[in-house]
């Protein structure tokens, strides 16, 4: 049977080897051209990473493909190809909520590729500081979860700092209960980020009602603690389990099976239009009747679709709020530009956080 199997596989494998030889030659040709592009960018002091351009390349290839590769496969393959080309031009660094093994690190690699250099940070505040101070060209921060809603600290820091949003990624969140030996026996505490504890509260109440719950800075930090103390269980993903040598006691314990977290990529460089964009902004209005209607009316009149509307206390007066708004389109698109110009005249405060390619 083995001889017959090998005889049928050999010609197919030979064809794959021949195609691989062609692919590596073409990839090296592509890399050489990417290096030439890098020299031109260097002369004009242009940014190495252009998320809108990469989005356009991937979208074009997805449209060209007739299978059997699906769109997500093409996305994954070409992100790594372009990430490797970027690394030839310049080593780029992205700050993320650490330590290693967090969902933020996973989001960073899925967005930028494996060639990005990660800078783990102890808090979301530190991610923003690293980008502002130039310790990292980019930062990766969670902004909202499909179960628990907005990440308030990220919203506050977007208001307080001068960084821009340059991209987004919606990451499926699969929580596991992790322990050293793969059992709950002897476990007295379950540790995780506060959001993860909230996303698993129904499961914990049913299956571990007597175990103390403790919020820590990140799920990866909880995994690190569990690796050092057999009385601690951690809620974290597969990456953290591998990183810290833990066993999966229970898999997929999130209350919502479709649980997702939206991450945004922050930096100092504005992003050009890709043709499939989103613009994020913060506005405030005077505390008077009809103020919010007057705020939103220009968007409707210019045909600009609003995809998110979130309010946060302004903390500078009684019952005053900032509104965080996402709209479809780039700030340079004519309808969006016209709506934002009117909005700037009517709002007491307007800050555009950035225009960037929408997550597909």
UniProtKB/TrEMBL annotation:
Signal peptide: none annotated. The record marks 261 as: Essential for prephenate dehydratase activity. Keywords: Amino-acid biosynthesis, Aromatic amino acid biosynthesis, Cytoplasm, Isomerase, Lyase, Multifunctional enzyme, Phenylalanine biosynthesis. Transmembrane segments: none annotated. It catalyses: prephenate + H(+) = 3-phenylpyruvate + CO2 + H2O; chorismate = prephenate. Its EC number is 4.2.1.51, 5.4.99.5. GO terms for molecular function: chorismate mutase activity; prephenate dehydratase activity. Residues 280-357 form the ACT domain. One of its GO terms (biological process) is chorismate metabolic process. GO terms for cellular component: cytoplasm. Pathway: Amino-acid biosynthesis; L-phenylalanine biosynthesis; phenylpyruvate from prephenate: step 1/1; Metabolic intermediate biosynthesis; prephenate biosynthesis; prephenate from chorismate: step 1/1. CDD domains: ACT_CM-PDT (cd04905), PBP2_PDT_1 (cd13630). SUPFAM superfamilies: ACT-like (SSF55021), Chorismate mutase II (SSF48600), Periplasmic binding protein-like II (SSF53850). It is found in: Cytoplasm. Residues 93-268 form the Prephenate dehydratase domain. Residues 3-93 form the Chorismate mutase domain. Catalyzes the Claisen rearrangement of chorismate to prephenate and the decarboxylation/dehydration of prephenate to phenylpyruvate. NCBIfam families: CM_P2, PRK11898.1. This is Bifunctional chorismate mutase/prephenate dehydratase. The lineage of its organism: Bacteria, Pseudomonadati, Pseudomonadota, Betaproteobacteria, Burkholderiales. The gene is pheA.
